[in-house]
Amino acid sequence: MKGVGPHTAAAILAYLPELGTFSKAQAAAITGLAPHVNDSGTQRGARHIGGGRKIVRDSVYRAALVARSFNPRLRAFAENLKARGMLNKLVLIAIMRKLIVILNVVIASDQLARP
Length: 115
Description:
This protein is mainly α. The protein is 59% helix and 0% strand.
């Protein structure tokens, strides 16, 4: 798929071999892209990402930078989020999560990603 090159694919296959067996939320959590809440009682704290497999997250970060520019569907997704007022870094994290979820489905279905 556009944005995922040989280095990213190799990192995902090496450090996340079980990809394709997860649900959406599990795939995001294992890579550290799921939001963790910081709530207490009626206070609503900030959401943060973290944990998971950092090597995979770093590779997906670089892939998301490319996909944001060259993948038409992800570019439209990013433009929609940006139009709703989301910050650039948060848009990039949303693209990273979407990439992992798409790759999880592609590997599970054993088919190539459609453009």
